[in-house]
Automatic annotation (TrEMBL):
Family as reported in the entry's similarity comment: Belongs to the class-I aminoacyl-tRNA synthetase family.
Encoding gene per record: cysS
Cofactor note: Binds 1 zinc ion per subunit.
UniProt keyword Ligase present: yes
Lineage: Bacteria, Bacillati, Bacillota, Bacilli, Bacillales
Enzyme class: ligase
EC number: 6.1.1.16
Motif placement: 'KMSKS' region: 270-274
Record keywords, A-Z: Aminoacyl-tRNA synthetase, ATP-binding, Coiled coil, Cytoplasm, Ligase, Metal-binding, Nucleotide-binding, Protein biosynthesis, Zinc
Name this protein carries in UniProt: Cysteine--tRNA ligase
């Protein structure tokens, strides 16, 4: 592990940046609230998926053993409605969209979570958790439902920095005469006729939204975890309710660091299904690369709002083309040199060290990916300068290539190197050879004409000090 790393995390709980010191040396426990699996994920969902993937990647890069849990909410009012609309079951709906999520996640270059627990696979743990809350006086049964008694937890509101009497009703909190207090929230919902349900001491029913995460965090990571993450819409009520449930039961802090990413807007407008402006990830990836989408997401600091528009994708594609050309030229030059390596150029090595140190400084500063990307382009500039030298050692180029690999291990934005075809058809081979002969004869007009013909066929030529390099568009 790089002990010199001094990661600072902005903690939503304290509203300050804090030095990251994990609960157990060398280990990190991280839980991020996952999707409710009733539809394909859209680019708003993709923002936390990509950002927390980078957190996972960077902490792993530093040498930590990261246990990363992302749950699936696979029973919920939305799934029940979707199943009714499609004439199928809640389980079939969940299975379909979990498969789709995992496919989209892989397509985005996201490293797999350690565990993807499903609510329906953890019903016994959830029931047991609720039973303990009732036994301790923190919850009560009313009309087949079970509610958490918010007055039993005086710190309710500490994450969102609101007093209980000032809280406004949030998502999934409903006024109900059966509640002892308006802000009490449901832990167990009595089943309605025809709904999916499980047996419990309070009758057939299913878990409420908030309890699932508390139970799964405890089961898979323990009473207190290092990092709890999610979108900016989750501190209240979801995470506030998680804290109340978990800390009432265990008497311990639920998480040491709370991280929340900002909203994503389409242009200046909030993305909404009611407005018909939702962009699904799998549809977008038919038009652009995963690296371009990741680049867009990481070009804005995670705590700031991100205004997404088509032009931002075009800008990302242009930036990635510049990086891709640099990498292609670097690897082409490396392939032309003998494998013995030679000595590393001292000046280049010092500059690489400076750039890598600056990259880590930015990542250590609350995962400042926009400024980290700036250092990636510093590396591109340096590499292009080195490639202009008539003489350079393979070891120097390998040093640069290794730095790119390190950056990509964290950000996952580098374009895949173009794969040159093993053979060209006879006509293209003939044209390339003819162009070479025209250049030797200083027949520049014919050489340019042949370049244009090859361009029309989708073949791009690059004249390098080591000869002609070509690639397909």
């Amino acid at each position: 592990m790089n002990e010199s790393a001094k990661v600072q995390i902005y903690n939503t709980m304290t509203r300050t940046k804090e030095r990251f010191v994990p609960l157990k040396p060398g280990q990190v426990s991280m839980y991020v609230c996952g999707p409710t699996v009733y539809d394909y994920i859209h680019i708003g969902n993709a923002r936390p998926v990509i950002f927390f993937d980078v957190v996972h990647r960077y902490l792993t890069f530093l040498g930590y053993d990261v246990k990363y849990v992302v749950n699936f909410t696979d029973v919920d009012d939305k799934l029940i409605r979707r199943a009714a609309e499609q004439g199928t079951t809640v389980t079939e709906v969940a299975d379909k969209y979990i498969r789709a999520f995992l496919e989209d996640e892989a397509a985005l270059g996201v490293k797999p979570a350690t565990v993807h627990p499903r609510v329906t696979e953890n019903i016994p743990e959830i029931v047991s958790f609720i039973e303990s809350l009732i036994a301790d006086g923190h919850a009560y049964e009313s009309g087949g439902d079970v509610f958490f008694n918010t007055l039993s937890f005086p710190e309710y509101g500490k994450l969102s920095h609101q007093k209980l009497e000032e809280l406004q009703h949030g998502i999934r909190i409903e006024v109900d005469e059966r509640k002892k207090h308006p802000h009490d929230f449901v832990l167990w919902k009595a089943a309605k006729p025809g709904e999916i349900a499980w047996p419990s001491p309070w009758g057939e029913g299913r878990p409420g939204w908030h309890i699932e995460c508390s139970a799964m965090i405890r089961k898979y990571l323990g009473d207190t975890i290092d990092i709890h993450g999610g979108g900016f819409d989750l501190p209240f009520p979801h995470h506030e309710c998680e804290i109340a449930q978990s800390e009432s039961l265990t008497g311990k802090p639920l998480a040491k660091y709370w991280m929340h990413n900002g909203y994503l807007n389409l242009g200046q407008e909030k993305m909404s299904k009611s407005l018909g402006n939702v962009v699904n990830v799998r549809d977008l990836l038919k038009k652009t690369s995963a690296e371009a989408l990741r680049f867009v997401m990481l070009s804005t600091h995670y705590r700031n709002p991100l205004n997404y528009h088509e032009e931002s994708i075009k800008q990302a594609e242009n930036a990635l083309e510049r990086i891709g050309n640099c990498l292609g030229n670097l690897r082409h030059r490396m392939a032309s040199l003998a494998p013995d390596g030679g000595a590393i150029d001292v000046e280049t090595a010092e500059r690489v060290t400076e750039i890598c140190r600056a990259f880590m400084d930015k990542m250590n500063d609350d995962f400042n990916t926009p400024d980290a990307i700036t250092q990636l382009f510093e590396l591109v500039t340096l590499t292009n300068q080195v490639l202009q030298r008539p003489v350079v050692t393979r070891a120097t180029l390998e040093l640069l290539d290794g730095a790119f690999a390190d950056f990509d291990a964290v950000l996952g934005v580098l374009p895949k190197p173009a794969v040159e075809a093993e053979t060209l058809d006879e006509e293209i081979e003939r044209l390339i050879q003819e162009r070479q002969e025209a250049r030797k004869a200083k027949n520049w007009a014919r050489a340019d004409e042949i370049r244009d013909l090859l361009t029309a066929k989708g073949i791009v030529l690059e004249d390098t000090p080591q000869g002609v390099r070509w690639k397909r568009k």
